[in-house]
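Thread: Newbie trying to understand structure tokens

Hi all, I'm a second-year student working on a class project, and my supervisor (Dr. K.) asked me to get a predicted structure for one chain before our next meeting. I've only ever worked with sequences, so writing a 3D structure as a token string is new to me. If someone could post the tokens and maybe explain what I'm looking at, I'd be very grateful. Here's the chain:
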Amino acid sequence: MSDEENDQKGMRRALEEARRARVAGEVPIGAVVVVQGTEVGAGFNQPIAAMDPTAHAEIIAMRAAARAVGNYRLVGATLYVTVEPCLMCVGAMVHARIRRVVFGALEPKSGALMSTQRAHESAGLNHRLEVVGGVLQNECRAVLQEFFAEARVRPRSLDARARGSGSEES
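---
Reply by user tm_fold:
Sure, no problem. This is what the structure looks like when written as tokens:
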């Protein structure tokens, strides 16, 4: 398989995780970690249910991958995520030594790879990420747009868990 085909396969799997988040009432962002062609970790956004501001899809997937490989370093890994990662997640990827991060949709408010900054290129970092953006971006964007369109028409009482939490973005 070509890199492009692998990236689309990985992103489709991340989209499955994003749909799990949506069903759980979380912002639908999903992530998958692959090492040597094998999925070793997956996750979806869970900050509301977990009552954990760090429970982003990328963090959940990296934690699962680290347990699976028996090391907090994920050298050679590719992380697929449906939306451009935030600064916290980019920092975690650098610390985990992720080789590549492949994302779908840009995140113009908090994306830290291309949209608001290029955090992975900071001079003081001792590891560099290879970044590929825009993989299946229309599908990734659509999942988010559908979620927020539904949220705008959902009665307020159903959103009680999320109210007051500020930005719902990853």
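A couple of things are worth pointing out once you decode it. The longest strand covers residues 38-44. Residues 157-161, 163-170 have pLDDT under 50 and may be disordered. Feel free to ask follow-ups in this thread.
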